[in-house]
Amino acid sequence: NPNPKTLDPNLLPQPLEPSISKRHFVLKTASLFSTVAILTLQYPVPQSSAEAPPPPKPSPLAVVNTKSWFQYYGDGFTIRVPPQFQDITEPEDYNAGTSLYGDKAKPKKFAARFASADGSEAVSVVISQTNQLKITFLEAQDITDLGSLKEAAKIFVPGGATIYSARTIKIKEEEGFRTYYYYEFGDGVQHLALFATVNGGQAFVAGAAAPQSKWDEDGVKLRSAAISLTIL
């Protein structure tokens, strides 16, 4: 996009203050990522009015080998966790729903969530029903059922965000190849990498987020964590 637009300042998290507490930052990052990864913002990605020439073939993404990292197994997926990251996944509320008043368990926002020691960087996984992302009578079996890479950006990327990279990635599995969509985007304050696929009517979305200033240093590590998402 030759004329990238920025997000409405009223919709963006404010720049992080040096004295911000770890808990406040974790909650702030969770709010930003849940807004994106839980996929409630389905605005069109801004397009240039000018007709741009065909983009050049994207260069390979810079990633590191994650085989030595801790491997987390979740509900239908697995992901590699960067060293020194702590598990901050919301605990299951086993008592909810057992009271006389019929309280219902609060749905979990994240299927998995890990943060750096200072809470400034996070790696998360969200699982969502595909019929909540796109109205359809058919159960999505592949992420292409949600549209092309460009069309699906309207689901996975907030309108107005600057997209730095977007590509389709196919990974070989026992029964063939699985298609993933990768988006990397930001607003000048936060930088995010998002890796998504579909399996059995569910969308699995792995994301990594950090302040832009830290992404310049740790972006390769965070991107590698997001792309390590594997469906079981």
From TrEMBL:
It holds the Pfam family PsbP. Residues 70-230 form the PsbP C-terminal domain. One of its GO terms (cellular component) is chloroplast. GO terms for biological process: photosynthesis. InterPro entries: Mog1/PsbP_a/b/a-sand, PsbP_C. SUPFAM superfamilies: Mog1p/PsbP-like. GO terms for molecular function: calcium ion binding. PANTHER family: KETOSE/ALDOSE ISOMERASE, PUTATIVE (MOG1/PSBP/DUF1795-LIKE PHOTOSYSTEM II REACTION CENTER PSBP FAMILY PROTEIN)-RELATED, KETOSE_ALDOSE ISOMERASE, PUTATIVE (MOG1_PSBP_DUF1795-LIKE PHOTOSYSTEM II REACTION CENTER PSBP FAMILY PROTEIN)-RELATED. This is Photosystem II reaction center PsbP family protein. It comes from California macrophylla.
